[in-house]
């Protein structure tokens, strides 16, 4: 048996080892002999007799190993000490072992660290509590380390202060640091932290007031860190004898908190200053966040801070059930929105129109955390929209009224003009070779001029309203231009002027365009040229330009004169409606200032632009370039292409002179009726003219008389021309008779409508003898 004292003497590493690990004492093991010494705690804890020596066969079970001399277990292991090789029971322990040479001999020290199971409670009560205390304090130590919690105290009687290791580590001071109240306080650099801790320590020392603070400090190594520090007082006979506390490194948490706080602040300021009413609510409809606009839009008499945490229904106690339903749908995960919601907030004098959207927001852990509400007060824009809509309706109404007025006016003015023109024609024919013929001619001319002005105004109004439409058809360009020149030639000759024509041979004969409208432009331009020229000539020129395409040609058309010219500064404004070069023009030359404006609009429809180049006193040139489409059918090859204007009326007159023909004239205006009858009698000999004042009469006359042709007015009382045509077409024999529309033709789509209801042809008012003749010969 080795004496422990001599054994342990001068063996500080052994002491340290045992002290560190040997909660339950220790055993000294001679590798040759066996256990040579059990410490007193070890004997108690293992239930062995003190100072009993064990034979070397004594076994240490450890996963089937014996502790024999060769067995050198490592630093720590679990096992049992057994006295009998057959015995499997024994006290289970956690061992730490170390080999230590003493006086040339090798010993193994087994430190019993922890009993794993208590076999006999009575035998080891002291050790147990000792062990627990030790293990608890070690646990505390470990926890303190892990949690970075250090302790400190200050004995006021001795003035001695203590810092635990962790406290020193937090402050990054050396182990031999000498703590005191003053030295402790000097780690707090910032004004705020220094003041807080100083006041707290003073209050603790003087009155025992506890403190719990989170402060920023700077360690001995100059590192900035955050700590939580708690201070308390210990009393004896109502006197403070000691102050103590803990200090915890909370730098990581604080940094994280601060980052979070700054993120939250960013989010907050975003919501707060959002230029819309936004609110975030939780599952109980309590406010979490809201924008300033929310308060303003809903006129909530509270501050943001007062609103937060309050229930939405507490703030709006009168909110209706519909809204509550919408909210609860949002809270169950639905996204809802409305672009125009009109409601009357309680206490308001007028409706509010809002646009709103409600969508759920989700918790990190999943599930709906509440709702986000977004609303926008669109009352103002809604009202503006309504006003605009109303204004538009009014404008449309007045526009419709204007169109109607124009249509009516056209009818009303054209009807008497029809009479004037027609009868002055007849008059002139009757009064040949008398002085009255000249008067009749003048009346006729004036009526024509008046008709042209009316037509101009109507055209212009239609163009302004965007109702002017082109009827593009394959037409002979050269022919249309020549026709225009021929019409104006009489005036030119009268003025002693010559109208020349220069034609580019490269222009295809047939092109797609609205012949009437192009003729209108040419007549206007040539008319102006004649009007403003006294000496010289007028030249119409057609020039082909390269379009770069196969199915399109560009043609530059110009009308040049040697007249008075236009001052440069006036060249732009003459294209405006009702504008002339200067006011003297009207006095000298007459005119309405509409012609060029209409030309410009018509040319725009033809994807062209009217331009002018002119110098005062030398003359003017009006020109434009039209992109013409080349049609697939060529007029030259298309022999059966028919157009009344193109047929030779003289030839027709020769080959057929219908006798005993019945012509039904449907016309409500007596003057026009008389005129038509007169014309017809002059065109067709041996004719029976039947009359009807309206559509209704026309039908019955048709049934009785079965006429060869019907000339049908459109606008009539009782039954109009369209309805009458439809009715006649449905009668037996009714689809054989040619029905010719006779109309003012100012209403858009009128011509198309005539064909759609089953009419065969179209005659424009005022009816001219020549046109009527062509139509009659064509259809009889
Ligand atoms: P109107 O001829 O009815 O007055 P226009 O619109 O046709 O209206 O023409 C507007 C004005 O442009 C004319 O009044 C005249 O001052 C000027 N103008 C037009 N054509 C010519 C031209 N060939 N030579 C000189 N001035 C012209």
TrEMBL record:
List where the protein spans the membrane.
Answer: none
Q: Which reaction does it catalyse?
A: ATP + protein L-histidine = ADP + protein N-phospho-L-histidine
In this protein, which residues make up the domain named Histidine kinase?
Answer: 408-630
Domain PAC intervals: 211-262
Which Pfam families does this one have? HATPase_c, HisKA, PAS_3, PAS_4, Response_reg
Q: Tell whether Phosphoprotein is among the UniProt keywords.
A: yes
What are the EC numbers? 2.7.13.3
List each copy of the Response regulatory domain by range: 662-780
Q: What class of enzyme is it?
A: transferase
Q: Which UniProt keywords apply?
A: Phosphoprotein, Two-component regulatory system
Kindly list the positions at which 4-aspartylphosphate occurs in this protein: 713
Which InterPro entries is this protein grouped with?
CheY-like_superfamily (IPR011006), HATPase_C_sf (IPR036890), HATPase_dom (IPR003594), His_kinase_dom (IPR005467), HisK_dim/P_dom (IPR003661), HisK_dim/P_sf (IPR036097), PAS-assoc_C (IPR000700), PAS-like_dom_sf (IPR035965)
Q: Does the keyword section mention rRNA-binding? A: no
**Superkingdom, taxonomy of origin:** Bacteria
Q: What is this protein called?
A: histidine kinase
